[in-house]
Amino acid sequence: MLKCMQHLAGLKFATTCLAGALVAIATTPSVADEQFAATAVVQLPDAQILSAFDISFVDPKSHSLVVAASRVVGSGGAFGTVIIVDTQANVVTKELQSTPPFVGDCTIPPARNTYSGPNGVMIIEKGSNTDVWAGDGPVFNTPCVPTSGLKTPNTVKVLDLKTGATKAVIPTGNGMAGTVGQRRADELCYNPVSDVVLIANDDPLDNFITFIGEDSYKVLQRIRFDGTDPNGNNILANGIEQCQFNPRDGKFYINIPLTGPATATPPGPGVVLRISERAPFHVEAVFPVGMNYPTCGGAAGMSIGPDHQIGLACGGADALIIDDRTGNKIQLLTGLGGADEMWYNSGNNHYFFGISTPGTLGVADAGPPPSLDPSAKTAAGSHSVAADPRRNQVYLPIRGNNGTTPPTTGAGAGTICSAAKDVFGNAGSDALGCIAVYTAPSDGDDCRAGGNSAFFRGRCPPATAKR
After folding, report:
1. Which CATH architecture has domain 53-377?
2. Which of 43, 195, 241, 423 could potentially form a cystine with 300 if both were Cys, beta carbons 3.0 to 4.6 Å apart?
3. pLDDT at 126
4. DSSP code at position 86
């Protein structure tokens, strides 16, 4: 281990010392039962600042965490990238940059916009191919100035996880009225049954979703949510959020957080949609969660849980678990509202909610019945979360205090990164930001999902561990 120790400023992409790193992970001190806490950190190489990010995604087969970072600041300035972390060792192994480059972030946090990139991200594995799909923003005639006119519509970029090569650049828009593609391509999901990727153009200026063949990289169809498309059930969306593939019925599900005109006061209630898995793609069912459950209001994040559960990260005060057959409430999770991304970890049967304000990791046991567990402190802006079911590690990117304008100081400054160490024994840096690794000891009810996690094999009673 001593040969692996190095100062943070000299940290390079980690490809060696993994055995020692795994020992460091395994010996991390535990905290109180079911209370998650940041027990380790992943630092970016070369003292880079993690300034802005969107979606995180874990692929357990390739042992990879991917983070869509629209603004990383290095010695050469700011750039957009997809950060790759080895989840077995908790080290950054690559930073993927596309050709042409990702748009990057046109504003410096805490300011936000809807034309940066990369945004949504995921890994798709098929045979010997392991690809990273990432939604990107448009290119304007004058960079970052929408009023200068659209030069290139937004795209989805496909990169090879192993080599970093750009394999495809796919415009989601077609330049036609209603599907121009003048703002970002955002969150996406993959249906392995039909081999189709769904990605959303979430800004009300676009308001459409695109279906892309995973093998061909060809656009198969679009559905407009402008109130006039019968395939979209004539729904007028005010934003489009996270989608998921549901393995129980083979369908797509997607959140529409609000409905009606963007100028409406108050906005219309949100809905969850079930969408067919094959062309012609169309809305098969509408679940009016915002109307039926006003303390949810409408959902951003979504995850497919056990049994017939769908978890919803709501914009209101509470989170919601619904039945995927009917849309009816299974459980209201009081006080867990306000999250953007959420994640269901089959390894320990928990839901996790990335709540950026006031900076909280919401935690719920999926049961049944679902129930609240203690939340954990994160940092302002930490809306992104993903979990590894094999090691039951939960990952939350933390924005660097020096990655904001002006630099964050005082009571608003993050302190999570400096409270833990990386696998080389170096303390994290709040100024640079980090990817925080949250863990907690398991208890008896976590054995319900034991068969999905190597961590539990041999530890759970045979009657509860699913093989």
Report:
1. 7 Propeller (2.130)
2. 241
3. 83
4. E
